[in-house]
Amino acid sequence: MNFSGSIIFFGCQDLSRIREFYGEFLDFTLYKDQGSCLIYELPGGNYLGYCQHLKKQIAEKSPIITLLCETQKEVDEFYHFFKKADKPTAQPPKVNEKFNLYHFFTRDPEGYTLEIQCFL
Domain range spanning residue 111? Predict the structure, then answer.
């Protein structure tokens, strides 16, 4: 059995903010606009969907949407990109020794945790 990809769906209240953040700010390609759902193509061949008919469920940091970079320099560049655009970040990028990665956290417009990281 083979799968051709995956879509992770999240509930949301405001698709216009999703469109602005993922489509304009992060420049992700809109794969499908289903009226009450927007599906964005992510680097690497997977998809991220936001739907108004789904209940928004957030608990502390969970779920986490993680976007992978190849290098620490790229993580730093994204951090400065977010800061320059006045997007909230918890703290500057740092090494996480437990999981052997370099990362920082922010939030998307619906309040979901967004992590930018690279593996070390």
Answer: 58-120
